[in-house]
Amino acid sequence: MKYPRRVRSPWNAMGSSARMRLSCPHGVSYVGASAIIFAGMLVGFAAPFRPGQTIPITIHGHLERVVLSPGSDPSVAVWRGTRRIWEGIPQRWRPWKIAAADVDGDGLPEIAVGVTKRTRYFPTLHHCLFLYTWNGARVAPKWLGSALSRPFTDFAFGPLDGPGGDRLVSVETLANGRRRIVAYAWNGFGFTGEWQRGSWRSARLVTVRKGEVELIADGKRIIVHSPR
Q: Residue 187 has what pLDDT?
């Protein structure tokens, strides 16, 4: 199978002020041409697989739970007390992580789901990040990303930098196989890369806090401070 020829990624010479937009017009998964250098690479399957995961989420004063059950179909459900009020995400998408976020800072939560599937622009199995709005009754797609700027193995959200909503932080795989964290901000229709740090053999995220990212990298717990 032939893949698009290699193109130079703007991340190769990226400074802390560099920007890259990842957009998804009309709900179709799409990324900029800089991600094409990884098309056809089956990477990123070292993600911290969670056999079961539960996260809290608050909407209109109600405390709810989002539950990932990879052995069930559908695999993601929202519970209010003992009542299941929504379920979705087919098991065949191989969901491996969920997270709560407020990327646009409007006070309403989004549900982020990491899945492993083929997409229109990347026909091999790879990690994708799907972001859904939640209004207390139903889920609707907000951003269905075929990929980030590079293949990724982990993600998290938190109030990292400046005004606005939560930032997305991902662990991404460089062309040499090493890992790097990249911070993104929501731009209204996708994500803009703000800064990146690190070059590790392995890495997984612990948490994203104001001004810093905590992770386990090469077996050590470290803190990466935002340059902004």
A: 94
Q: What is the pLDDT of residue 28?
A: 31
User: How far is the CA of 194 from the CAs of 35, 66, 108, 129, in angstroms?
Assistant: 16, 29, 23, 18
Mean pLDDT per block of 10 residues along the chain (228 residues) reads 35 38 37 30 44 89 94 96 95 97 94 95 93 93 92 96 91 97 95 96 97 97 94
> Is-cis flag, bond preceding 123, omega within 30?
no
Distance CA 102, CA 172 (A): 22
Q: Which residues contact 106 (CB under 8 A, 6 or more apart)?
A: 165
Cβ 222 vs Cβ 207: under 8 Å: no
What span, in angstroms and rounded, lies between the C-alpha atoms of 42 and 44?
A: 7
pLDDT of residue 220: 97
**R_g over Cα of the chain:** 17
Helices (H) and strands (E) in the chain, counts: 0, 16
**Where do the DSSP E strands lie in 69-146?**
76-80, 83-88, 97-101, 110-117, 126-134, 139-145
* CA–CA distance, 186 with 190 (Å, rounded to integer): 6
In the prediction, which pLDDT does 147 show?
A: 86
Which residue(s) pair with 80 in the sheet?
83
Contact 180, 97 (CB under 8 A): no
Cβ–Cβ under 8 Å, residues 145 and 117? no
